[in-house]
Specification:
The chain is an alpha+beta fold and 170 residues long. The chain is 43% helix and 16% strand. It has helices at 13-27, 55-62, 64-69, 87-96, 101-109, 123-133, 155-168; strands at residues 5-6, 11-12, 35-37, 44-50, 72-78, 140-142, 148-150. β1 (5-6) and β2 form a beta hairpin. The radius of gyration is 16 Å and the shape is globular. The chain starts with a strand and ends with a helix.
Length: 170
């Protein structure tokens, strides 16, 4: 049991396979089913599983303009940690069912009470996807190379990390 490592290169071969599988699953998600905050010129894209009631998700979102200034597009997928048929779940659905999802997500993350609404929405499918990807916390970030990081990363640090990853890839 455990990960397979190449002892000469120190590469985690198991994680390389996991990352590729994550990317395959994420690439199957229609961007129309995401709430995307992107700068005019996108340098990097990060997919974030988020919960409107998560403190560090709120911190990340409060700095969305800074991520965008660094050229980082943030693609949100819903992952209400408390599960289906909970207050967080209904907030995520209400955000999705809003005429302006980006504004609704921002208001929800600021703690504004959401009027409970319903419509056809991808929240449950996104929660299922999170389970398949091994997401168990919020925020969970999936980077362009498929690596998964649980937790908040400040915009400047994320930008440097993504630049390093991009320069290291073939």
């Amino acid at each position: 049991e455990g990960d397979l490592l190449n002892t000469q290169t120190r590469e985690n071969l198991t994680e390389t396979i996991r990352s590729a599988a994550r990317l395959k699953l994420l690439n199957a998600v229609d961007p129309k089913n995401m709430i995307i905050f992107a700068p005019e010129h996108v340098k990097h894209t990060v997919t974030v599983f988020t919960d409107v009631d998560c403190a560090f998700c709120r911190k990340l979102h409060s700095e969305i303009a800074d991520y965008n200034k660094y050229g980082i597009a943030i693609r949100y997928l819903a992952f209400p940690r408390s599960g289906v048929n909970t207050e967080s779940y209904y907030k995520a659905v209400s955000v999705w069912c809003s005429a302006d999802r980006k504004a609704a997500l921002t208001r929800a993350k600021l703690g504004e009470r959401m009027k409970r609404t319903t419509c056809d929405n991808p929240v449950r499918q996104e929660m299922d996807l999170a389970d398949r990807l091994g997401v168990n916390a919020t925020p969970t970030l999936i980077l362009e190379d498929g690596s998964l990081i649980s937790g908040y990363i400040p915009p400047d640090r994320m930008s440097k990390m993504l630049d390093r990853l991009a320069s290291a890839s073939p």
